[in-house]
Structures are given as C-alpha cells and as structure tokens.
C-alpha cells in the first residue's frame, strides 16, 4: 500500500487513497512515478568548446509522482500534508512496491510543488501530485518498481 506519513503540530497523519482492497492493493499504487537525479551547483559552458562544466555542491535524488483516487473525506489530511511540505518539513514515502521501499526523510524539491486536483467531480475523488527529494544522510535514487 502506497502511503505518505508525517507528524505535524496536530499529530501523526497517514495519507492514502483507501483503495487497498482492490486487486490486492493495485489501486493504492502511486501513479506516474518518475525518478530524477540532479547535480546542484553553477554550470557554465567553456568558452572554447561550449562543453558544460559544473561546480557540484550536491546531487538531489528525487521523484515526481501522483496519488490518485483520494476520497474527499481525506481533504483535511491532504491540506495538512500540502502545508507541511510547503513549510519545508519532511514526510515519509512508503511506495508499497515489490521491494517495499520507504523513504523516510523526503522534502519538497527545489522549484518543486505539491498540488491537489479534483480528479472526478461525480465521485468527488482527488489526486495529489508531489515533486520530492530524498533528504537522507546518505541519499540514494528514489526508485519505485511495481511488478
């Protein structure tokens, strides 16, 4: 089961889409999971060749993904999660993938966002999109591989 958990001033919270019973949890998977790896630092082209050179301070390992089919009864948790991430706080991302990957210190990526979108106005289902980086002491690629 794919979840996002965090603890803010209100207390512990878990965000999921409540569809774990569908096809052994297939409905609770993250959608459009796209990992990225970005070196951070100034990059300039060489004058003679145009080849880019970069002074790298760090590498951000992250992913963009969407949680779909979230019922409107979870709106308060969605708003808490959105505000928590926008404040610069961390969340834990549990992928529920084949390797049970979990990323315990994820932050909003630089220039990233967390958005809530009305997905189905008849069933009042929402989707929530994230662009997060792995802020672990020894970060690694944020992989999520479903069988």
Portion in beta strands: over 45%
Count of folded domains? 1
What is the first-to-last residue Cα distance? 13 Å
Question: What low-confidence regions span 5 or more consecutive residues with pLDDT below 50?
Answer: none
What structural category characterises the helix and strand content? Answer: mainly beta
Please give the radius of gyration in angstroms: 17 Å
Helical stretch count? Answer: 1
Quick summary:
Helices cover 8% and strands 47% of the residues. The protein contains 1 helix and 10 strands, in the order ββββββαββββ. Strand 7 (91-94) and strand 8 form a beta hairpin.
Overall description:
By secondary structure, the protein is mainly beta. It is built from one helix and ten strands, in the order E-E-E-E-E-E-H-E-E-E-E. It has one domain. The strands form two sheets. Strands 1, 2, 3, 6, 7, 8, 9 and 10 form an eight-stranded antiparallel β-sheet that branches. A hairpin with a 2-residue loop joins strand 1 and strand 2. It starts with a strand and ends in a 13-residue tail after the last strand.
List keywords for this structure.
147 residues; mainly beta; 8-stranded antiparallel beta sheet; 8% helix
Secondary structure blueprint with pairings:
Blueprint: E1 3-8, E2 11-15, E3 31-40, E4 43-45, E5 52-54, E6 58-71, H1 75-86, E7 91-94, E8 102-108, E9 114-120, E10 125-134
Antiparallel strand pairs: 1-2, 1-7, 3-6, 4-5, 6-10, 7-8, 8-10, 9-10
